[in-house]
Amino acid sequence: MSTDPDLAEFHRWFEERRAAHAYRVTRVPLAKLDGWSADPETGDLRHRSGRFFGVHGLDVRVPGRAVEEWRQPVISQPEHGVLGILVRDFDGVPHCLLQAKMEPGNVNALQLSPTVQATRSNYTRVHRGRAVPYLDLFTTLGRGRPLADALQSEQGAWFLAKRNRNIVVRTVRDDEDVPVLDDFRWFGMDEIGRLLAVDDLVNMDTRTVLSHLADTAAPAAARFRGRPLHTLPELLNWLVHHRTAEPTERRRIPLRETTGWRVTDDEVCHEEGRYFRIIGVDVRAGSREVASWSQPLLAPCGQGVVAFLVRDIGGTPHVLVRARAEAGTLDTAEIGPTVQCVPANYAHLPEDRRPRHLDTVLAAASEPSSGRVLFDVVHSEEGGRFHHARNRYLAVRAGDDVPLEEGDGYRWATCGQLAELNRYGGLLNVEARTLLACMGFIP
Fold this sequence. Notes:
Elements: H1 8-20, E1 23-28, E2 36-38, E3 45-47, E4 54-61, E5 69-76, E6 82-90, E7 93-102, E8 110-113, E9 116-118, H2 120-123, H3 136-139, E10 145-153, E11 163-170, E12 184-188, H4 189-196, H5 204-210, H6 232-245, E13 249-253, E14 261-263, E15 268-270, E16 276-285, E17 292-300, E18 304-313, E19 316-325, E20 333-336, E21 339-341, H7 358-365, E22 373-380, E23 390-397, E24 410-413, H8 415-422, H9 430-441
Parallel strand pairs: 6-11, 18-23
Antiparallel strand pairs: 1-16, 2-3, 3-4, 4-5, 4-13, 6-7, 6-9, 7-8, 7-12, 10-11, 14-15, 15-16, 16-17, 18-19, 18-21, 19-20, 19-24, 22-23
C-alpha cells in the first residue's frame, strides 16, 4: 500500500471500512457449490436460477494466426450490468463517488469500486438480497446529467461477448443532497490519480468507467492533445479492415468436449497447467447485498503484462495500439495495447513466437533510472468472476529499437483519438481502457 502522505486520510478511512466487515473466501470443489451444478450431458456449469452466468466450452478458428484452432472453457454472461460513477462539484472541483467493495476474487478482498457495480441479476434481486444503493441515479432518465454512457466489452479471452454499461452521471445541481453511505466516499480527480498508482487498489470496473473522463477532468489530460499521425477515419478504416479480413469463427460446445482441458468434480484445468483454471469458492461477506453465496471463478495461471509504447511524433504524444482479436470478442477485433499477454504462457515456445515488443517493455521496466517508464503499476482484474487475476500495466517511451513504421496490425494513435473512439463503446478493449485511464490520471 502507498505511503504517500497526501493519502493518509484515505488510508484511515479505507482501513476502517476493512475492519467494519467480516470476509471469508474458501476454496471448494465445483461439485460442492451450493446452487450450482454441472449439466449431466454437457458438463456445463450453471446456476439453478438460470441467471448470473455459466461456464461452457468454445471452439475457435482464426485463419492465419500462429495457432489457428483451439478449444477452451469460457464464461457466458449475456446480461448487461451497470458500472456507474456519480460526479459532483465541490467548490468548483469535480469529485467521484466511489465505494470500498469486497469481491470474492480480489487478492486483497477490498478495493475501490464505482458508485454502482451490479449485474442485472443482482440489481433485479434474483438473489433476494438488499437493493443496490444509488442505482436509480443511473437507470432513471433525468435523474442526473449524463457525461458518458456506452456498452463496453470485457476480457475477450475469458468472456463470450460480454458487455457492461459504463455510465458517468453528474448531479443535476452542485448542492444536491446525495447521502453518503458508510462504505462510500467522494474522491477528487488528483486523489484518484495518486490512488491509480497504487497496486491492487482501484478495481477494473472503476478504471473502465474512469477512462471516459481521462481526456477532460483528469490531471494529466494534456497527454491527450496534439496533432495525430493518422486521422480518426483512417484509424477506423484500419480497425474495420482487421475485423473483416481476419474473421474469427467460433461455436459453443459442451464443456466436456474442450480438447486439451481436464474437467473434474474439483476444477477445470489445462492439461499442461497453462492459461487458467475454473475453481469453486464459498463466500461470506457482511457488506454485500447477500451475506453468503457460492460460485465458480476463473483463476489465471500467471500474472500478465499490459503496456503502451509511447513516442512523440511531430511533438505530439502517441501510443502504439494493436488490432486484437480474442476468442470471445463480440466484433472479432478491438483496439488493444501494444503488449497484452501472460509471459508464462509463451515459455514453451521458441523466441520468435514471443509477443512482439514484450522484451522491449520488460527491458525498459528493469531500468527505472532510464526515465523511459511513465507508470508501472499492478492492477487486479474483475474480482467478481476472476480469482487473483492481476496484470502489470506500464507506459514505456519507445527507444531507437522501436521503428516508426507500424506493421499491419499496429497503428500510432493519440490518447485523444482513443478517448474519442471510447465514447461510443465496443472499440477499445478493457485492457486498453485501463491504460487510457492511467494515461489521464497518473501524473
